[in-house]
């Protein structure tokens, strides 16, 4: 987001805040058998086991664990278009964690985005999705977190410009964009579909990455899960498009991808690789199947026109592909099953933004290590080997070869993305 756009957004929020003040102040312990809306089993261990499963399903460890830090102790830098937010400590430490939080405190944070002290949380903590969770699921999560080893880790101040560093501004944001409320099953749909919707719209918070955002960082409710930016990557569409969505994927491909990080069509890369390693590989087969059923029900968005690419660009890109990529991904982009993902007819390659593909070319990637697929093969990056113009040509070629169709990439965009990746936390 440009500085001018950020300043304009800050001024708008400040004005709205003033107006608002003036108007009045796969443990495998069987949670797979728990149906949506069913009360948890009696006894603390049943609740704790279920909570552990839900914590994994919500990918809580990923955001609340800094690189090299203690699990769930927070302090991980989370890049946003507005600045860097540092995750909080959710171990039961009484001074720096949630050790003094009651069940009501925790439920309010998950359901309303307000912490124990009454401060508004930033939606980098995905309460706009967690609000859909049932009370029983929230309390099971709290019961599990209470069993963790307490870690003393104070919260690092977030790096946000004024007025976004004032948490009270979030009251205005919530009034404009946040709809609190638990998930309500659709009686016209099957229990399996509703379970998938509950996981995708709630605990999985898939829309936090896979949906477009407006200037204020709120997701597009009218066109959800059709792709969006998050953590310097583009999360592709999960809707029904055959070119850049899941329209051509059978349910089993979705189940395999979420469970192993790969299938015959693609491999997880970027932030999604971490999601598979830390979260979705541990989901039960019934839950993975339910997610697949729900995602396959999403309609395709209208396919936008893609401008043709000039022959000289494709010729330059083709030569670069032969020199740098063909050895692994093969001449027709078909890849090598179980080792190197295919590039042709790939929805990720043909996504409306090429940023994730550019990121992979620049910095390389590693296929997730999972229990089912432990190898975790890695690809080298080409940031030091290819310049911005070459990476633009190569990306454009891959997005338009072998029947693929995607917008061309220019060198200026690669340059900007390279700088952003270098300056981002952990970059």
Walk me through this protein's architecture.
By secondary structure, this protein is mainly alpha-helical. It folds into 3 domains: 175 residues, no CATH class; 106 residues, Cytochrome Bc1 Complex, Chain D, domain 2 (Orthogonal Bundle), CATH 1.10.760; 113 residues, Cytochrome c-like domain (Cytochrome Bc1 Complex, Chain D, domain 2). It has 17 helices and 6 strands. A hairpin with a 2-residue loop joins β1 and β2. α2 packs across α6, α10 crosses α12 and α13 packs across α16. The longest helix is centred in the first third of the chain and has 21 residues. It is globular and about 65 Å long. The two termini are 18 Å apart.
Features:
427 residues, mainly alpha, Cytochrome Bc1 Complex, Chain D, domain 2, 3 domains, two-stranded antiparallel ribbon, two-stranded antiparallel sheet, 17 helices, 40% helix, disordered N terminus, membrane, Cytochrome_c-type_DH, signal, metal-binding
Chain-wise SSE layout:
Layout: H1 3-23, H2 44-57, H3 60-63, E1 77-80, E2 83-86, H4 103-112, H5 127-130, H6 135-145, H7 169-177, H8 191-203, H9 207-210, E3 228-230, E4 233-235, H10 251-260, H11 271-278, H12 285-296, H13 311-324, H14 326-329, H15 355-363, E5 365-366, E6 378-379, H16 388-398, H17 411-423
Helix pairs in contact: 1-7, 2-6, 4-6, 8-12, 10-12, 13-16, 15-17, 16-17
